[in-house]
């Protein structure tokens, strides 16, 4: 444990990385953090099945969105709010229920946002230590640690958009770490734990399963996965749970890009490529490459949320430090993916993030509107998405060549 | 710990990170350049609506609370984006048309605030105006709905539908051109600081932690060095 928390870079750089995070945490704001905390706040009122509750009370609530995350997300944020209740103060509930424009001017909003982002900081820093523990030599430990803590992209995505994807990314990384140590059962447990926050680790589970050679191990792993999934999901099973957590977000988008074969049958493109990645992973020991490639191809072929790039960032950094050959292509792919969502027709991707400085900023024309004056922004988005898909396929092809060698 | 030489990659990252920090905290300066108008108040709560179509126009009275009136915002319902016809806003003063603005229906998202901009009216403070909303191309079956309110601002007067007064006025926003860029930037920083300071317990915690981290950076940098 002591080795795990050893800082492989000068401490002033580490503290500087903390300082940057600390400085921006209370001031950048995306409404998602309020929505999922509003929904999770019902745990302290004794509501367990949030999916049914929101469905029944929809008309009475200021925010009518479904709870689109998995049950553990609800339990985690609901419990965290109970834990920090004395620090939040009594006006927190009032702010959560305020759906008006004035809510960004609540006099305690900086405190709320800061405290609600603290778990993100915890898992963000923990991710840096975990990344370092993938390496034995000091040089690469230091490089991976620096690349994670000092890159502005991860800081911006984690603290500006405020999704809790970093928690899931950490669990996925932990699962990968254990898989590398051949502790596959424990690895699959952490993947399912990640899945119980957000759905995407489920896509990675087949890679772990395909590493098992003995049927008894396979069975043991299957039982662990099933037991973990059922123990935390069973109390929530209902029609609303299926429509909210299972059939929304990523899962809907992943089914969208397809080739129509007629007669109502389609070939789903992300799945087609995913199956290729699964089969390739069976031929190769480098699990981290397949975790990375799978998410690269999936995100490149769907309409994604910028927060989802946090799924890839730790794996990308691991990939960059371990395999120097594809450095340029991988970085280029990430940059295309990073800038693409700024062109979405959604001011919350850009100008509204600064609404805690001034609510007037939501009036500023955002990139989509600016581009619209001179060019079709959807066409530009399509061009960038095509570029990222080509780069993703190129990375996959390079990997096939690596296996051939 | 041995002297640590900053790798080129780390130097680039430190530069990017510092640039990012500056960008975040200087954002009010850059972003205020894109602010052509600022709202006078918050939009009153929405309560009910009135139909807007080719045979029914809506005229709303108001007294401008400031100089430099340059835009008016109203919330419009365009269910399933079914109507594409232009919506026209005309501003009248003493019975005469003084400003006109047109917004295409294809850009009106259901329930969004639609902002009609026009050349600023310099001496608008305390002057009575009427803004008239009309559409020529949309029939009754695909009518827009303009949201009204039951809690109007004190500067809002009566609403007239085809010149007949109705009970609830439109829920609207008035926008004014800023007096100068400098004063706007100053006001934004001042308001931000005041709001941050108003939760003074958190403010002092934040400053104390920031100072502690800054001192630690200096202390470790001196101790461990870096080139």
Tell me what you see in this structure.
The complex is a heterodimer of chains A (405) and B (227). Chain A has 405 residues and is mostly helical. Chain A has 21 helices and two strands. Chain A has one domain. In chain A, 64% of the residues lie in helices and 2% in strands. Chain B has a domain of 139 residues: Sandwich (Jelly Rolls). In chain B, the strands form two sheets. In chain B, strands 1, 2, 4, 7, 9 and 12 form a six-stranded antiparallel sheet that branches. Chain B has a six-stranded antiparallel sheet with strand order 6-5-8-3-10-11, with no helix packed on it. With 227 residues, chain B is of the alpha+beta class. The radius of gyration of chain B is 25 Å and the shape is elongated. Chain B contains four helices and twelve strands. The two termini of chain B are 14 Å apart. At the A-B interface, helix 1, helix 7, helix 8 and helix 9 of A face helix 1, helix 2, strand 1, helix 3 and helix 4 of B.
Task: List its salient traits.
heterodimer; A: 405 residues; mainly alpha; two-stranded antiparallel sheet; 21 helices; B: 227 residues; alpha+beta; Jelly Rolls; six-stranded antiparallel β-sheet; 31% strand; elongated
How are the SSEs ordered, and which strands pair?
The complex is a heterodimer of chains A (405) and B (227).
Chain A lengths: L10 H14 L7 H9 L9 H8 L13 H13 L1 H4 L2 H6 L12 H24 L5 H12 L2 H10 L3 H16 L3 H12 L5 H9 L5 H19 L5 H8 L3 H6 L2 E5 L2 E4 H14 L4 H14 L8 H14 L4 H13 L27 H6 L4 H28 L1
Antiparallel strand pairs in A: 1-2
Helix pairs in contact in A: 2-4, 3-14, 7-8, 7-10, 8-18, 10-11, 10-18, 11-12, 11-13, 12-17, 16-17, 17-18, 17-21, 18-19, 19-21
Chain B lengths: L7 H18 L1 H6 L5 E2 L9 E4 L5 E6 L5 E9 L9 E7 L2 E8 L9 E9 L6 E7 L9 E4 L8 E6 L2 E3 L5 E5 L4 H18 L1 H25 L3
């Amino acid at each position: 444990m002591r080795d795990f928390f050893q800082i492989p870079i000068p401490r002033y750089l580490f503290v500087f990385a903390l300082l940057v995070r600390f400085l921006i945490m209370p001031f950048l704001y995306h409404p998602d953090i309020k929505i999922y905390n509003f929904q999770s706040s019902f745990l302290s009122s004794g509501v367990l099945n949030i999916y049914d509750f929101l469905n029944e009370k929809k008309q009475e609530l200021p925010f009518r969105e479904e709870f689109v995350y998995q049950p553990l997300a609800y339990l985690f944020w609901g419990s965290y709010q109970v834990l920090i209740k004395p620090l939040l103060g009594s006006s927190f509930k009032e702010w959560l229920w305020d759906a008006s424009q004035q809510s960004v001017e609540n006099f305690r909003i900086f405190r709320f946002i800061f405290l609600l982002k603290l778990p993100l900081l915890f898992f963000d820093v923990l991710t840096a230590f975990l990344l370092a523990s993938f390496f034995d030599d000091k040089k690469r430990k230091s490089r991976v640690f620096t690349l994670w803590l000092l890159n502005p992209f991860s800081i911006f995505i984690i603290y500006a958009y405020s999704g809790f994807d970093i928690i899931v990314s950490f669990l996925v990384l932990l699962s990968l770490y254990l898989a590398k140590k051949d502790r596959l059962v424990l690895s699959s447990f952490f993947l399912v734990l990640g899945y119980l926050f957000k759905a995407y680790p489920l896509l990675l589970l087949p890679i772990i399963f395909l590493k098992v050679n003995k049927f008894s191990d396979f069975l043991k792993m299957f039982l662990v996965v099933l037991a973990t999934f059922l123990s935390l999901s069973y109390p929530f099973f209902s029609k609303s749970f299926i429509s909210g957590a299972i059939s929304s977000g990523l899962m809907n988008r992943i089914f969208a890009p397809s080739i129509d074969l007629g007669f109502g049958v389609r070939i789903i493109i992300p799945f087609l490529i995913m199956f290729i990645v699964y089969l390739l992973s069976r031929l190769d020991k480098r699990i981290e490459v397949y975790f990375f490639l799978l998410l690269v191809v999936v995100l490149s072929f769907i309409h994604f949320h910028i927060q989802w790039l946090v799924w890839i960032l730790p794996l990308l950094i691991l990939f960059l430090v371990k395999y120097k050959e594809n450095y340029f292509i991988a970085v280029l792919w990430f940059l295309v993916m990073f800038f693409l969502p700024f062109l979405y027709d959604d001011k919350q991707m850009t100008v509204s993030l600064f609404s805690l400085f001034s609510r007037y900023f939501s009036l500023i024309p955002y990139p989509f509107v600016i581009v619209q004056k001179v060019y079709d922004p959807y066409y530009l988005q399509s061009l960038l998405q095509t570029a990222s898909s080509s780069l993703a396929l190129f990375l996959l092809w390079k990997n096939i060549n690596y296996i051939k060698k | 710990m041995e002297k640590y030489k900053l790798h080129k990659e780390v130097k680039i990252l430190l530069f990017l990170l510092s640039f990012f920090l500056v960008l975040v905290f200087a954002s009010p300066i850059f972003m205020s350049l894109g602010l052509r108008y600022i709202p006078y108040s918050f939009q009153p709560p929405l309560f009910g609506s009135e139909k807007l179509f080719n045979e029914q126009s809506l005229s709303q009275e108001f007294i401008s609370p400031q100089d430099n009136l340059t835009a008016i915002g109203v919330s419009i319902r365009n269910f399933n984006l079914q109507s594409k016809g232009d919506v026209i806003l005309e501003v009248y003063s003493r019975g005469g048309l003084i400003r006109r603005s047109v917004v295409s229906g294809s850009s009106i998202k259901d329930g969004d605030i639609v902002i009609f901009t026009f050349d600023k009216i310099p001496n608008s403070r305390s002057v009575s105006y009427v803004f008239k909303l009309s559409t020529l191309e949309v029939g009754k079956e695909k009518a827009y709905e303009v949201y009204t309110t039951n809690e109007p601002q004190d500067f809002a007067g009566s609403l007239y539908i085809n010149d007949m007064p109705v009970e609830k006025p439109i829920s609207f926003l008035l926008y004014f051109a800023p007096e100068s860029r400098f004063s706007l930037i100053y006001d934004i920083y001042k308001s931000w600081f005041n709001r941050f300071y108003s939760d003074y317990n958190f403010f002092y915690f934040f400053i104390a932690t920031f100072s502690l981290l800054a001192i630690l950076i200096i202390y470790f940098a001196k101790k461990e060095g870096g080139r």
